[in-house]
Amino acid sequence: MRTALVNGRLLTGEGITNGRTLLLSGGRIEALADPQDPRCRDAVTVDLAGQLLLPGFIDVQVNGGGGVLFNDEPSPESIRAIGAAHRRFGTTGFLPTLISDDLDTIGRAIAAVQSSLDAGMPGVLGIHIEGPYLNWARRGVHDSKHLRQLDGGSVSLLSRLRNGRTVLTLAPEMTTPEIVAELVASGILVSAGHSDASYAETTAAIAQGLRGFTHLFNAMGRLEPREPGIVGAALYDENTWCGFIVDGHHVDPIMLKLALRCKRHDRFMLVTDAMPAVGSAASTFVLQGRTIRVVDGICRDENGTLAGTALDMAAAVRNAVSLLGLDVTEAARMASEYPAEFLGLGHELGRIAPGYRANLVLLDDEFKVQRTWIEGLASVD
Ligand SMILES: [Zn+2]
Fold this sequence. Notes:
Helix content: 10-25%
Structural class: alpha/beta
Largest sheet: 8 strands, parallel
Strand content: 25-35%
Mean pLDDT: 97
Bound molecules: zinc ion
Distance between the termini: 21 Å
Number of strands: 24
Shape: globular
């Protein structure tokens, strides 16, 4: 069956275009067609009423949503609930993210994502394993009892997922460049975070295939006059990607604007780092035995440490426009095309173009999500 999305403003490679009909077929984008195209005649027509149609958002860091924390119960049911909560805010592709835990829980989390992928669960692209190979001094809310060095013995566990992407956040100083190379060779996308690595330690990891930086600036050593450190390496290296939390609380917008001046914008991606609070009315949740309070959209533990966010992707895009001064096309690409490229999925996700998977989000004039499609199937309103 063919679907024709008519009368929308579409974000394409040329920017926002009017007057084109988007034809979907077999879960893919078939064509950007002229409204008179004969293929439109036998299609189910959906009138987008002049609203903005973007590639569906891709979030590579999602700890929870809808009142569910992935660490609490790493199961396909949890993943489904988290995905459903975030889909209401435009996310059509995501990595359930496990924060530092024991190896048995990591194994169960990978198995749960594998089951979800095998069952074709909408939106699941893989897993993000954040820790436990993190620097104690930069642990944030990660439980120090789980933190450890990464030796070669865990590579086979960490690279177990098939047919999906695995992102591993580690502190480069908690392992060796040789093991980073081994992880990369086994297909893992290695991202540096929760780290005090020196510039030399970080660039040694980059030379072995380190691909990105997790929530740039947060839980990282500082730029210093005689030690650029991990942040200096992240900003100076042209090829690696950086995750941005744009909630107005985690990082001063000026810091993010400075980062954007350092390298190509297609190396930055919006992430939520979301906790169960997204898509839930509850004002508290429990993180590994600690009560986290959500006040004015900010999640903190009893010591005041930031504990992830209550940010959703639609809000992240709005904030990228209002706080960082980006135009909507660039903000939208940071939430779709660029994370797709980070994941090595830029050939099939993150753009409105023929042949791409039909993952889409429709926004009104206030950037509120009206509808989403995953593989051509519309969300139920
Ligand atoms: Zn983190």
